[in-house]
Structures
1.
Amino acid sequence: MATGRWVHEVGSWDSAQAYAGEPTGWAHAMAEAGHDVASFGKLHHRSGADDDGFTERHLPMFIVGGTGWLQGLPRREPIPYDEAHELASDVGVGETTYTRYDRRVTEAACEWLGSPDRTAAPWTAFVSLVAPHYPLSAPEEFAALYPLDEIPPPEIEPLEHTHVAVRAMQSFFNYDDYFDDASRTQARAAYFALCSYMDHNVGLVLAALDASGQRDNTRIIYTSDHGELLGNRGLWCKSFLYEDSVAVPMVVSGPGVPAGRTVEANVNLVDIAATVTETVGAASSTSSESLVHRALHPESDRPAFSEYHDGGSITGSFAIGSGEWKYIHHQDYAPELYNLAEDPDELIDLGGSSRVAAERAALAKTLNDLVDTTAANNAAFASQIALIDQHGGRDALANAFRFNHTPIPD
């Protein structure tokens, strides 16, 4: 998202290898073009000592201690994720450190947008809210919007996952083992309430932009870093390459953007970079394509792409979406293949079906044209092994600071 380059291009393989300013990204380009470039809230970059391009940071959240989630590094000999039980135990109604943090972030962004300085010089702002990340507990006024007796169960019942790579991930992130029907309903209600809380905060930021008189000359991008499985398939949070996790909102408005148009064509988070930098005539990486260009030219068949090399995974996994098809490649294991038009819930795996051999081969070629999966998988494991050694070995990591979500900065 910061650079407009894929994970395998920048080597940010996991939650312990965060962006540290290299290669340069859209924030650097905008600063070089003379913009004030401000961040508000969650960055999850490595540390404040790195030049990530921002000219000012407000309430920044970096990865813990500049090292992040070390326990996820030993993927071939995983450290048990005992913190998984906390997801089910921290559900309900009430404020959390995250909801209070988002309120502070929103207030800071609104105050900044309202300053007379915003009309004195061009600016670029990154407002990054945590909600609806767990803990799944929401402020009372938003929780009241979702009575528990109106909350539906997960749309997809718990499954016995047969793919070895998926089963290994489910065993590691065994969140669902700690839920019962009551807590599952509470968690889902809280997630919906947190979405409404986040929408409320976004509304306040947009109202501040309106009040500043700059709405018409400002390009706005609204998106998220990942989705949420929310109990579907017996899975929670992110990490898996199913649509619940990898399909995210993407709304763009502003100068040059066609109003009221819904585009079904694939886009990617790397495309944010080109969308930002083209406003000042700066180039972006070849992996990034302007979302505005995409809105104006939706006919091109550009694939959607995701990859995962983080904790819980026994191998690198790569997903390609093209047309009605979704292809998931697990390095050294059988692939998964889904027809999203006929099977939007991804319940019928056609990865081994001879009936769709041509489609599977075409998607595999599309993936191989984009990334050498063997090289990427080897590079990820090699990088993680080196980090494990650097931090004293597996036993030392097992006893390092443990957490299930990043603590709020002071």
Note: The two ends are 25 Å apart (CA to CA).
2.
Amino acid sequence: MSVDEKRIREFAYQIWESEGKPEGREEEHWDKARKLAEAEALAPKAPPRKKAAAKPKPPAEPKVAALPGVKPAAAAKKPRAAKPSAG
């Protein structure tokens, strides 16, 4: 069996299944399948897709040893805004 015959058979089976597996319509399915296979053979071949390159992760922040008695900037408390006086 040639590749073309195999492809026509595959298409005919898919058509038959998609139509609910009716009986007595083999000729119609084979004709449709033959036309699909011919169209597929004439269609231009798409070049294989390249996998998207993984984006490199940004370098991690260097870890700095904390000095004794010094709080990290993120842990430092921010000064509160002054409340307006009632007056």
Note: The two ends are 99 Å apart (CA to CA).
